[in-house]
Amino acid sequence: MHMRKYPFSILLICLLQVLTAKAEDGYRLWLRYDKISNPTLLNHYQKMMQHLWVDGNSPILQSAQKELTMGLGGLLGKPMNQVNSIQNNTVIVGSVESSKFIANLQLSEMPRLGKEGYLIVSLTIEGKPCLVVAAKTDVGALYGSFKLLQELQTHQYFGKMVMVNNPAMQLRMLDHWDNLNRTVERGYAGFSIFKWHLLPGYIDQRYIDYARANASIGINGTVVNNVNANSLMLSKDYLIKVAALANVFRKYGIKTYLSVKFSSPIELGKLKTADPLDPAVIAWWKQKADEVYKYIPDFGGFVVKANSEGQPGPQNYQRSHADGANMLGDALAPHGGIVIWRAFVYSNETPIDRTKQAYLEFKPFDGQFKPNVIVQVKNGPLDFQPREPFHPLFGGMPKTPLMMEFQLTQEYLGHATHLVYEAPLMTEVLDADTYANGAGSTVAKVVNGSLGKFDLNGMAGVANIGDDRNWTGHPFAQANWYAYGRLAWNPSQNTDRIAEDWIKMSWSTDSQFVAKTKQMMMDSRKVLVQYMTPLGLHHIMGDGHHYGPSPWSDRLGRADWNPVYYHRADSAGIGFERSSKGSNALEQYAPEIRKIYEDPKTCPEQYLLWFHHVAWNFKMKSGKTLWEELCYNYYAGVEAVRQTQKIWAAQKSLVDEERFEQVRQLLLVQEQEAIWWRNACLLYFGTFSKMPLPVGYEQPDHDLKYYQSLRFPFAPGNGGSN
Ligand code: GCW
Questions:
Q1: Distance from Cα 97 to the centre of ligand 1, integer Å
Q2: pTM over 0.90
Q3: 284, CA 20 to 30 Å: which among 9, 102, 199, 672?
Q4: What domains, with CATH codes, occur in the chain?
């Protein structure tokens, strides 16, 4: 019996080892910590990092210790020797806040560190060479620990090192649009990671790994529920659940925030009104804020979507956004909390150009918000389109702190099916010059507070994660979560470099693999714009679910929900005239911008149809007519996806089978969907231009009627109950 059992169990173990060694399901994100494959580097690192000393025992330092133990142990291929005094070749981690040893070192770089910054320096102390990760605070030391691991994972760190690093922004937030029933608005990676019905009792390992991933890229705040909020979130039952999550996140330097519904005093408090100037309402919110802080002493604050897309707000009571935001600000102020008030509003009544409305509503209140209120503005004036010019509120409200809202989830960028690296979209906006205070007044300088000298400043990214095993659905969508965090930490980082780091950490350090994969990523957003909305087209997607093309849609209740409102194609041409000859949305920008954009001949072509209605035979810079250029772009976009497929196919031997195959299949779907966009849009626009597809292009395999007949009743991410 024993003889038979023994070899079988050995066999099973071996089999399991083979399987687990091969299985690469993406769960580990960019924190894989597999043993360094380059023998010279490995040898070098092993010599330099023989011991680990994390000096201090706070929950945050314990997180650092756990991460370094796991990370260094994995990368160096041997368990770390834990010590509590200096030895030869020790990694020493600590902060002035909790380590006498670190404080006594009196490091000369220390004065250059902010609250969350860190320093990594090679030193010889008491004759012993060591590597010191030091900070003023424990959270700084945690960030430094992740940075050290990143340096090793990307094979950067070799030899002596001095690195001083501070975050550029105060708030670096990840915003979930997760509902209490675990559906995720505009979520394409499964259900919400937050299992409300099992909280507070059950702490899923995913919450911890989520916090680790966020901390590794410097994210320090999370909004756990949808801005289309349910007032139940503020009930005692749910606050206890939120507190359990906050207990996990706190250990990684992450503050918890909640989206709140403005009418909560009515729904939860049984008041007759939610009027922000009503004394009973004011008292209700104050008492609610006190209660929240009883459960979560370091609670971050409230995020509010008010008077937008049917959400209640102060305007229901003829009060202003400032009245509403300031009332909540007063309730949170005694506890150090903040209000993040969203500027994504467009009025139900006003029939003017939707892209002008947020500016018109908010600009008059510039300088009238309480010091603990920050206004959160989407990157563009419409709604997270594949390409939009920057929002004119950036630079338009010099006396008010503004924060950036990016959308990581790919609502308008091919859901979790299309391979799109969003970092170039982000930097395109961050680097844009608002001219608010002369040339060089970039959007980045608005949102990092440097232009207006605001201590309150930051960025938010609408999360793209769910309970899919690999978190984001598409393996490459992880890069958007990663890059967002890196850019919130430092908006002037090179997107190419961020991609490179992400590839090395998430896939492989093989130089050919890194170079080719980076090439696929860097162009991917430009390519998506080409096959979806080239030359400044926007909002021509399917109704409701926003899946696929539907430029012909004209049936929705409000004019400005319909694609035809945006592209305005007719026999004369196509595009939305937003110059002084049209809606004059351009007037909301600085004169330097207006001057160039006003004239279709000087307007950057990537925004041409955003700002102008242009004749079909308008001469483009390439010498082509507008119609030809439109066709060229749609076809080039599809071709580029095919090119990407080829590059990926050639990588097969350099990557694990599981993720290789997943990406391969998704690229096939992406190609099909790119063709669908191209054919549907060109067939439809051709009914106005009356011009044929240029010769030599492959012909659409269906007619326009076919594309118009497609229906997708259960496309994911489409709102639903919360
Ligand atoms: O783009 C729209 C989305 C809505 C979203 C809204 C917003 C949360 O289609 O699903 O609602 O933006 O940002 O508030």
A1: 42
A2: yes
A3: 199
A4: 23-165 (3.30.379.10), 171-506 (3.20.20.80), 530-576+613-709 (3.90.1330.10)
